[in-house]
Every structure is written in C-alpha cells, then in structure tokens.
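Contributing new records

If you add data, match the layout below exactly. Sequence lines come first and carry their own label; structure lines follow with theirs. Keep one chain per record. Anything else will be rejected by the validation script.
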Amino acid sequence: MEQVVALDIGDRRIGVAVTDPFGQYAVPSDTFFRSGKWAEDVEAVAKLVMEKGAARVVCGLPLHADGSEGIQAEKTRRFVEKLRACLKIPVEFVDERNTTRAARADLNFLGVSVKKDKKKKSVDSLAAAYILENYLAESRERSCNMKEDREEYEEEDNIVELVDDEGNTFRYEHLMTFEYKNEWYVALTPEKAAEEAPEDESEEDEGDEVAIYHLVGGEDDEQLEPIEDDALLDEVFAEFCNQYDDFEDADEAAALEPDEE
C-alpha cells in the first residue's frame, strides 16, 4: 500500500504521522524540533519523509474559523513550497483546523501525565495523525464517489431506448449482441424487469422477458427490426441462450423467456 506521511508544521516543532502498513489508519510518529534555519529544516524534514518510505506527503494548512488564511498559513505554504523542491513525490494540503485542540483534549482525557516538553511532542505527532485521518477519510469518500459515478455511467451506458410507431419511448437493458447464420441480432430485456425483483416468489419461475431484434444496416445507420418469422425467432432465441450461457450462469439463461410480441 502507498505510504503517506503527514506533517503538522509549526514555528518550533513539526509533528509527523504515518499510515499503517495497510494504508487505512494514521499512526502518530515523531516530532521534529526546528533549528530556526529554514534551509536546514526543510532538508532535514525531506530526509525524514524519505526515510519513512513516503509515496505522498500531506501537510496541515492552518486556517481561520471562517476558512480564510492568515500569517501562519502563509508561513506553512512557504515551507511546503521549499519542501516540494526537495522531494519528487506529491505534497498536498489538508485543512488542519481544530486538530491541535483535539489532540490536547484527547491527551487530557486519557490522563497523560508527562513532562511539559514530552507532552508537546505527543500533541504535535497526534495532531499530525488527525491531519492524516482527515486526508484518508476524504480519499475514501472520493474513491466511493468515483466508484458510484462509474457504476452509474456503466449502468446507463447499457440502456437502449426504443421508440414505437406512436412515438412512445421504452427503455431496455442490453443483454447481448450476437451472430447467427451470418446475421446479427440484439437481445434486450425491459429495464423495469432488470431492476425490480418479483413481488411473489412464484413469479421467479416465469423468467424475465427478452426481446430479440434483427440488427440491420451499416455502421452509421444501424436499425433494429422485429423478427416476424416465429420459427426463425425460436432458432435465434435458442442460439441466444447457448451463447448467453457461455458468460452468464446457466440457470439465469434458462430462466429467460422470449418476448412473444
């Protein structure tokens, strides 16, 4: 999994957190004490990041409560700009509002009793972990949204709309385009039948309705024509079941019924 390192950049200290081996959780790591020399600090942090095998770095961006940026945000951006010049991996920003406050609250809640300087180190690395958790949560949400959008697109892309002589539009799910005796045919099933489960379990035996059409015309003017010959329709439907069985479950193919209309 991709190793991600998070930085909570302060004027005196920089908290560090890393992802667990599976890239699912944030783990508090180190606290880097700044020397006050920007060039040295940037090089040292870049070295620390690479030692942890980072493939990506996320840095907390301190914002005001209303989301606007102030002096601290400007300092952070300057530091990250120099850090990017030292690294060959992506460096991103994450909103860090309330992360330090939440880290202090958690340490107090847990009853952490340590020396002042050690507690500050704990706060910094824990704040970096919160920054990383926010990044991971946003990444998971983006991934889910992309998956849903892709599935919605693929599902819609598989829908065929047919218009009858009276101008009525019917939506069908495309099942297969197949060849039989040097001719091409298209098998469709009504969209409603594909999406809705039968209300009565006894209806499952009836199977889903399938419409078989003859595909005619060239590449630019393809058309679907009904098959008027009942004997030919039976032959084509049998061939459809044989081919459909090759890439779908046999029981599912057997349950389909040809459209008699």
